Automatic annotation (TrEMBL):
Any single GO BP term: carbohydrate catabolic process
Gene3D superfamilies on file: Aldolase class I, alpha-galactosidase from lactobacil brevis
Keywords from the named record: Glycosidase, Hydrolase
Highest rank taxon of the organism: Bacteria
Protein name: Alpha-galactosidase
Molecular function per GO: alpha-galactosidase activity
Length: 710
């Protein structure tokens, strides 16, 4: 039988710690505050620990678990609850639950809450207090159990899993699947394990899926969700045995991610953090808003210049990997005094003549041909033009045309051979020589030329892992942790540096790396018509204040096309590139109007909640229909960004403003469109009259609430 041993009110969430009568294991149940629970509905035998780990040699879970899941192994069954300690410091609370194994192992489960936040952080520690080494082959960051079953009886056709897919230049596609389609309903005899395990293997943590999952009770409108802060291989498991449904995840285990780790006598190991939340709502977007609020912790410590989300110019889609003192000078003459704050010199500044930029990384010697007077002069020219100079690095790799490519003793190996992709090899970031080399090549250059912005790119994945540790997966984990430490060195040594997280566009958009940097490249879909679709998708997994969205302007672009491109950037951080030295005055007038509009909507981008409307878009390359994104900000400000795509576009589109009530009135503050008469607000509705395919409009609305005297 189960019993509640502790419960905590954490903002609008309620956490229950549930144990067996003999207080052996502990479950964690998280529900919206105010909901009533009945733990008797969680089943009689299917106890599911909030700590999930497995040691080599211990017995697997029963009934078809092996190769499917390592959850609820003998390691878990041996655990016994010891105590719970609550530590409070200011507005922060750490609930630490101690469990032990008679063999000499201690596990500490941490649940962290910061007052006023809509999420919790969870991680676990393993301490080996035995007389010999222990080998972990699975150790997850979090596990939530009793999902839905503790609240309501019956689960047929009521629950579904949301996860978010990602491929290059089409990031963030949501997938919503009923549990029955995943075969996560129980059989006639509920003894068999049901488990849907998914994740990503390699050093691009958003290459296939985002480290995100949500379970939805569709009948009662409750969502449970998680993001995992992990720069390497990770996994998430939706698990069922009997009626109780569980969600867990963290580092990819031995089965999934080729990971196991030896913990010596007296040693310890901690998992990555998971960000979790639960809420009531009508859309998974409400849950996503709560999870992405975690980014605000990092943004609080961002350089002061970042407070207003300044506009970026990046020359990549102007020079296509061939920047030079000459062409940068021409660009500066065209864009100075137009409101840009950052000017980023992208890839290629180091390349030799006739060698592609993506085969030359690693040596990072400034090209004398491209910059005959040195890079310092160009950086100074950027500052004289009123902008902060930025520069691109791919710090962790070496291209095949570089000398670094042949420094094999300092490169990652797999099975004793240098790990090589088509054109890249990888520095072993655990090697002190490599750290010293990169300090000289990267950090010293940043300081020498007074760069205030750095774009950190990463354009290949290591795969399952590398040599140098007890397992390939552990080698990968160690390497990526050392990469993160080098990023911290950059921030420590280059005061006020603004960092951009890029990996072939959006392949590194995970919470851990995002917390280290100010913003991220949202995608490599630089000038595609699907940009607003991808940009809107990413509101579910990264905060829009960190999502750098490109508008690439071409000399042949119509005013309609310019508006379409600029409106896309209003879904995050504005970045421009393209044929800026060849634009007409009419084109510049519309661009500058958009830049002015962007600066007015920054407060809504920084703090707001996103709602989606529009067509069910299947093809991203050939989208049909329309999309409307409404973001409710503070002080009554509302932002609406609408795009039409191809196909049958309706003559009139009406969107009911979220959170509408009869005591509210709405008025338009400003419109950005080719023709501002195309949109109006009436009552609680936004009404848009599109005239063509591939057009857009953005409107800033003021909401006022009227209180009646009773």
């Amino acid at each position: 039988m189960r019993k509640i041993i502790r419960e905590y009110r954490l903002g609008d969430m309620q956490a229950y710690y549930i144990s067996t009568e003999d207080q052996r294991q502990v479950e964690l149940l998280l529900i919206p505050a105010g909901e009533k629970i009945d733990i008797s509905k969680m089943g009689n035998n299917g106890f599911d620990s909030m700590v999930q780990l497995k040691l080599v040699g211990d017995i697997y879970n029963d009934t078809y678990a092996m190769g499917n899941t390592m959850r609820n192994s003998e390691t878990v069954r041996r655990l016994k609850y010891v105590e719970q300690v609550v530590q409070k410091s200011g507005n922060k609370t750490d609930i630490s639950t101690y469990l032990s194994d008679s063999r000499g192992y201690e596990i500490i489960h941490h649940l962290l809450y910061k007052k006023g936040t809509p999420y919790l952080k969870v991680y676990c520690e393993f301490k080996n207090q035995s007389e010999e080494a222990a080998v972990l082959e699975m150790f997850e960051s979090f596990s939530l159990s009793g999902i839905s079953s503790a609240l309501f009886s019956g689960s047929e056709e009521r629950m579904r899993l949301h996860r978010i897919r990602s491929v290059w230049s089409a990031e963030g596609r949501i997938e919503s699947i009923p549990l029955e389609d995943l075969q996560l309903e129980t059989a006639w005899d509920p003894h068999a394990v049901r488990c849907e395990k998914f994740g990503q293997v390699g050093s691009m943590p958003v290459n296939k899926f985002f480290p995100f999952a949500a379970l939805e009770d569709m009948e009662n409108h409750i969502f449970w969700g998680v993001q995992i802060a992990c720069p390497a291989s990770w996994q998430i498991e939706a698990y069922r045995k009997e009626e109780s449904l569980a969600l867990s995840g963290g580092l990819a285990d031995r089965d999934f991610g080729h990971w196991y780790k030896e913990i010596p006598k007296g040693g310890e190991f901690s998992t990555p953090k998971a960000i979790i939340s639960v809420c009531k709502g009508d859309s998974v977007d409400i849950l996503s808003h709560r999870l992405t609020a975690y980014a605000l912790e990092g943004l609080e410590n961002a350089p002061l210049i970042e407070k207003e989300l300044p506009i970026i110019f990046n020359e990549y889609c102007t020079t296509w990997g061939n920047p030079s003192a000459e062409n940068i000078g021409e660009i500066l003459n065209a864009i100075k005094d137009k409101g840009f704050s950052y000017f980023v010199i992208d890839c290629g500044w180091y390349k030799e003549k006739n060698i592609p930029w993506d085969e030359s990384m690693g040596d990072y010697n400034v090209s004398g041909e491209l910059f005959p007077e040195g890079l310092g002069k160009t950086a100074a020219d950027i500052r004289r033009a009123g902008m902060v100079p930025g520069i691109w690095f791919e710090i962790e790799t070496a291209g095949r045309a570089s000398e670094a490519y042949h420094m094999e003793e300092h490169l990652i190996k797999k099975d004793g051979k240098v790990l090589t992709s088509y054109a890249r090899r990888f520095w072993d970031m655990r090697d002190p020589w490599v750290q010293d080399y990169l300090e000289k090549k990267v950090i010293r250059l940043l300081k020498m030329y007074d760069f205030g912005y750095m774009k950190i790119d990463y354009n290949e994945t290591i795969g399952i892992g590398c040599d140098g540790a007890e397992s390939l997966g552990e080698g990968l984990r160690q390497n990526m942790e050392c990469s993160k430490r080098f990023i911290e060195q950059i921030k420590k040594q280059v005061n006020g540096i603004v960092l951009e997280n890029c990996a072939s566009g959006g392949h590194r958009l995970e919470p851990g790396l995002m917390s280290q940097m100010s913003m991220a490249s949202f995608s490599d879909a630089h000038e595609c018509i699907e940009i607003p679709i991808i940009a809107a998708n990413l509101h579910r997994v990264i905060h829009p204040a960190q999502s750098q969205i490109w508008a690439v302007i071409r000399k042949g672009d119509s005013i309609q096309r310019i508006v379409y491109s600029l409106c896309s950037t209003f879904l995050g951080r504005m970045c421009l590139s393209g044929d800026v030295t060849e634009l007409s005055q009419d084109q510049w007038n519309m661009i500058e109007k958009g830049m002015g509009f962007y600066k007015k909507i920054v407060p809504v981008i920084r703090k707001g909640c996103t709602y989606r409307f529009g067509s069910d878009i299947k093809s991203y390359r050939h989208p049909e229909g329309w999309q409307g994104i409404v973001r409710i900000g503070e002080q009554g400000k509302i932002l609406a960004v609408l795009h039409t795509f191809r196909g049958m576009v309706p003559n009139e589109i009406e969107i009911t403003i979220p959170e509408y009530s009869q005591d509210k009135t709405y008025s338009i503050l400003e419109v950005y469109a080719e023709d501002s008469r195309c949109i109006r607000v009436e009552g609680g509705s936004i009404i848009y009259y599109p005239s063509e395919e591939l057009e857009a409009v953005t409107v800033l609305i003021q909401c006022r609430t009227h209180f009646s005297m009773q």
